[in-house]
Write a structure and sequence with these properties.
Blueprint lengths: L2 E5 L2 E2 L6 E8 L8 E6 L6 E6 L5 E3 L7 E6 L4 E6 L8 E7 L2 E2 L3 E4 L1
Parallel strand pairs: 2-11
Antiparallel strand pairs: 1-3, 3-8, 4-5, 4-9, 5-6, 7-8, 9-10, 9-11
């Protein structure tokens, strides 16, 4: 069974940084495209960033140059480093891999 567990969210001041983790178990994270999504109250879910099997990355325009996605194949974990956070980044962040979703972690700026 594939399980994804997010962590690292919290309350941060504007301009601050956080690093989110998506720990994958039951399947090699490098075998799937792994996405980070976010959803704020009253808004549609937004694809924030993704990393594919070869390590190529993509970002939403709203987070480009501020966020960085990476993958540690030894830990089977995908990270989302978020810098220069703004109030519009407030949302619940969830990761998705191989069709499975984690429970999400709240980020409040």
């Amino acid at each position: 069974e594939v399980q994804l567990v997010e962590s690292g969210g919290g309350l941060v001041q504007p301009g601050g940084s956080l690093r989110l983790s998506c720990a994958v178990s039951g399947y090699p994270a490098k075998s799937c495209v792994v996405d980070w999504h976010r959803q704020a109250p009253g808004k549609k879910r937004e694809l924030v960033s993704s990393i594919n099997k070869s390590g190529s990355t993509r970002y939403a325009e709203s987070v480009k140059d501020r966020f960085a996605i990476s993958r540690d194949d030894n830990d089977n974990t995908v990270y989302l480093r978020m810098n220069s956070l703004i109030t519009d980044d407030t949302a619940k962040y969830s990761c998705q891999a191989c069709g499975y979703w984690g429970q999400g972690t709240q980020v409040t700026v």
